[in-house]
Amino acid sequence: MAGALLIGIDVGGTFTDLIAYRTDTGAVSAHKALSDRRRPDEGVLAAIRAAGLDPARIGLVVHGTTVATNALLERRGSEVAMVTTEGFRDVIELGRTTRLVPGTLYDPYFRKAPPLVPRHRRFTLAERVSTAGEVAQAPDPAEIARLAVAIAASGAEAVAICFLNSFRNDANEEAVARALGGTLRYVTTSSRVQREIREYERFSTTVANAYVMPVMAAYVERLLGALRGGGCDAPFYTMASNGGLMSTTTVAAHPVRTMLSGPAAGLAAAVRFGAETGCPDLITYDMGGTSSDVALISGGEWMLRREVVIQGMVLRTPQIDIHTIGAGGGSIAEVDAGGALLVGPESAGSTPGPACYGRGGTHATVTDANVVLGRLGEGQTLGGTLEIGAEAARRAVGRLAERLGTSGEAMAQGVVALAVAKMAAAIYEISVARGRDPRDYALVPFGGAGPLHACEVAAELGIPRVLVPPSPGTFSAFGALCSPLIKDRAVTLLAALDDTAAARMQALAAEFAAGLREEFRAEGVDTARFETMLQLDARYLGQAHELTVTLPGEFTAAAARAVFEGAFAREYGRLDSGRDVEVVNLRVIGRILILAPAIAAPAAQAAPAGRRRIWLDGAWTEAPVHRREALVPGIHLHGPAIVEEMSATLYLPPGWSLALGAKGELDLRHHDVAGRMLAAE
Amino acid sequence: MASIVREMRRSIVRSSYSSIIYEGYDFSCVLVDAAGRLVAQSGEDHPFHIIPVAWSVKGLVERGIEVDDSSVFLHNDPYTGGTHLNDVAAIWPVLEGGQPILHVVVRSHWADIGGMSPGSLSGGAREILQEGLRLNHIRVPRQGTSDALRVILDNIRAAGDAASDLNAVFGICRVAERRVRALFAKYGTSAVLHAIEDIFTASERRMRKALEALPDGEWTHRAYLDGTAAAGSPLPVQAQLTVAGGRARVDFTGTAPQVAAPLNAGPAIGPTSVLTILKSFLDPGGVINDGTLRCFDVVVPPGTILSATPPAPCGGLNEVRFAADAAVMGALAKVAPDRLTGDVRGTSNHTYIGGRSPAGRPFIFYEYPSGGTGGSRVGDGNHAVRAFNEGENVSIQSAEVVEVIYPLRILQNELRPDSGGAGTRRGGCGLIRRVLVETDEATLSVLSDRNLVPPGGVNGGVSGAPNRYEVWREGAPLRISDFPGKVTLFPLRRGDVVVMRSSGGGGFGDPAARDPALLSADIADGVVTEAGRAAYAPPASAPVVIARAEMPAPHLARLTRDLAEAHGLQAGEIFELLAGSGPAMRFWAAELVDEPGQRLWVHPEAALGDAPLRLRPLFQHVPRGTPA
User: Fold this and answer.
1) Element (H, E) at B137
2) Does B11 sit within 8 Å of A433, measured CB to CB?
3) Model confidence, pTM
4) Interface predicted TM-score of the whole assembly (ipTM), two decimals
5) Residue of B225, B247, B229 whose CA lies nearest to B304
6) Fold designation for A484-593
7) How many CB atoms lie within 10 A of CB A102?
8) Looking at residues A7-28, what average pLDDT do you find?
9) DSSP state of B485
10) Which residues in chain B touch residue A197, judged by CB atoms under 8 angstroms apart?
11) Backbone torsions φ then ψ of A154, nearest 5 degrees
12) How do the domains of chain A map onto residue ranges?
């Protein structure tokens, strides 16, 4: 692939970011184009055009997409019909009989989002698979035929087939899928989408999959058609929620697996960045306009979780374990009736945006507070386009300050401190609350607002080191190029962990691994670098919630138990040694690493450093302002200082030093390593 | 502080052995100060745990029990602030210089606490001794065992799981203590304690502002529990709400005397209702702590079902609490009718199937199906989901998991058509669950209310369908108890089908004013059947209501026979009067008189503020002649 261009793309709400990597020179370039929310494929093509790339030279396209996520959030998916077991028509509507929407306790006016399939398009069939996996009743072919007519008449574009106990035996689901496949293009079954016990979670995920199938298929077809038409015949992959890449075949069949496509790319970038900089233990901190995502990477591996809740719906697919909080740069600061300061979850978004954007926003936001404090400067441009108006920020923050009888600067300090406390609490929950000490990790901030708050967040948790990657604002697009192809296969076992079970698991793992390799081969992928990872969901007998652990290729029951108990002790700080361990699900993950570009520093440019007044500990202080491109190897800065670049701004507080790393990363160290929040522990 | 309790919650759910905790989320994590004042809760905790948790700590302080940092204190006694015996509070004092500075408290529902039936709760209890062990600040060690702990574990069912869960609770309290200490170390003890006072003041100010938005005045409403065969029927809960100058006073005088049936509650429950309802309707977004509570005065006369004394059984405290909620909501509906919603399920629907599997393994299956929620000005109620006053408990289990764990099979899990109260905005539907029994050694116990008196509507909206329980054997329903909803140890056989139907929510506004397109959509979805369409037709005529002081009680009415016949109503049956504004008013037809004129007489205390639009019999959902 000498001389080829590898393209990583991250389709965001406002911008579509593109990273181009030249395999011969190792040069990396970043480009941005405006996203088109209605036609996201247009944004991707525009970014490729903006980068002036020759389609014929493109060797690989990998992209993170929010097409499925937005279709679900904005309810722009397809008309879906559902076929389910008689007596279980309303499983997706009843769910767990909980609201599953935070902050709705005590809200008598709470209204549940309607299910993705209205009741009149939920059809039932007399059929049953026993819990042992035997077909107790096969569906009557005449009934299926009648159903096919009714579904066609209902106007449905896609159908989700969801039968009880199909995780044990998919024969009935497959029989109906075959019959309906003749008349409907989009057919999905619960055992294909998520073959694990618990009907609500499985059905809900399957229905969501059907809901976004036609939208995703149309998007991929248009995009791929345009690329091919332009002379680009490079392999095309999509980021999955679990941090792996999916072929277009898999994306078309399982679009529900792209719900965290964008954030997953950010984590993939962080893993790569950690490997390059020799720092495998990282906490990522991606702060955008309306929300922030934090995640933990240990030993170069991100954590996975099994489900996410969107609008009160459970989607159970393996996904990166990110913790999202509703506070970002655009989060609005407010004072409630009792006089308490609040930051978020209300956000000014990008339109009208923070007051300092000068687009009509009047609410004081976290970004405005940073402007008041001088951390973001008058006239500075954000993302290369938005110019900051300091006066508007001061007015907005001043109004809030008046209500609390304080100065604008003190108010701004309070707003930033509260935002920082929220970030620190979020990181606390993914680290300390899960038995990990954040002080053993380096904080990696990215997104437009991450580097601005990173040092203070780190100090709050006693994290002594912050690593700012090159071009933090387009880090996720870079991540799309760093990910392996991933496929997985799982089975529900529900057996005591003994030597018989261990032997059976290893046999199944071998069988699954061979199957996954074959699937890759069928898609035309070179499987020379195929590797597998074995995951086990296990619990003490009698518990209902499992822990997911990674097992080596060969293991005894005792060894597997030891792995489980190690994880259990870390999570809960105790053991129940007297109890048997139960294995619930076994999952084999097959991975193939395609190619990962090296991280390289952008070429240094001469740019003058300036100075700016910043508010520090109750007084104005002059601080140097540097352009990141102008930093040269060997440079050593001490806070307070500001470092600006096109996509982000870094605030280096007193007590912190900055050095330029070999890969272009900014290596920030805190000299008061004790930390405050954890001092007593 | 709030993030400490959130972390506690998460850890408990994930490591628990009891389905009521890991699936039901029936527990709360709270921080209480040295004086027993509520400092922080996670925001997801069950409303009915929160005030009782603070009372439990207050009791510990007031008793003057010496605390140390190697002990935990268990409390579940309803008469001194507990809820029902199954809810055991573990109070973990955090000491500084030998004195408690805060208490970490976890209140969790134990699957069993002893007593006469598996799961401990049943409608048949006559005294609290039948409901299990009373624990009044019983000292147990943080590590290891003790005599007291052995007594407890030797006298409950599923003791192994309880011991494991208690171990998990202690582990989580230990982590919470570490975090509390870290906070105190970071900011200094006195700074944190001062900050807590500031938080209280801010919360008080916020709640006071919400109350100031109401006009000053006094409003009274009565809600009714079904009662039981032993205790009689119905049982009123009366709330007189007085709002003056940013404070609210609720006087529950007029509530039924305590009964020898599990429909009693302890003294912490009235204040809990007042907090839940006023906060939910006036300021749902605010946090809850001691400051919020300072705006309320609550009067609960001892010896009533809302402040029972020993040995009145309190298993159904939630049934009483929901009636108190309904009474406070009704009073509020008279001053702020547009803000109100139709009523919700109004019971816990405790449903236990316990026994042994064919292989001889003991089991307790416990569910408490949620009902529909009320319609409101913003739209229709939700189908079978936890309501605003019910926490976030998962009330039904996965059918696939049930089949693996229990000798039971779920045959149906669906919405219950026509159960949502008709209204301009319809109440949400309840659910129907049919459970096939696959063992010969099992019993059914149910503690449910609102099987006779359904969740009411508001502003002309109609009641939802009541909760209902049945057992079917060989194609016919059986008589499972002498009073609907109160079942104790009914013997089940292989092949029996237990049917649970949960209530629908009350409607909001006149059903005849419902948008025809919404009604058509409901019919297309099968949420309303063709037969159910009748509830949306305008009434033929409005009854003439006359207030008469000689009526013996506020819930009794005298009707002319022509009026009763026009509605198919017989003597002794229950009906409701719906007005264009305010809550549905319920009456029992005490007497039929042979006079013409379609009139009825009611007690002046029960007179409606607004002219009634419609009379509606309430027995329709419980057809006569069908065994309960």
Assistant:
1) strand B136-141
2) yes
3) 0.88
4) 0.91
5) B225
6) Dna Ligase; domain 1 (3.30.1490)
7) 12
8) 82
9) T
10) 398, 400-401, 404
11) -75, -10
12) 73-211, 331-418, 484-593
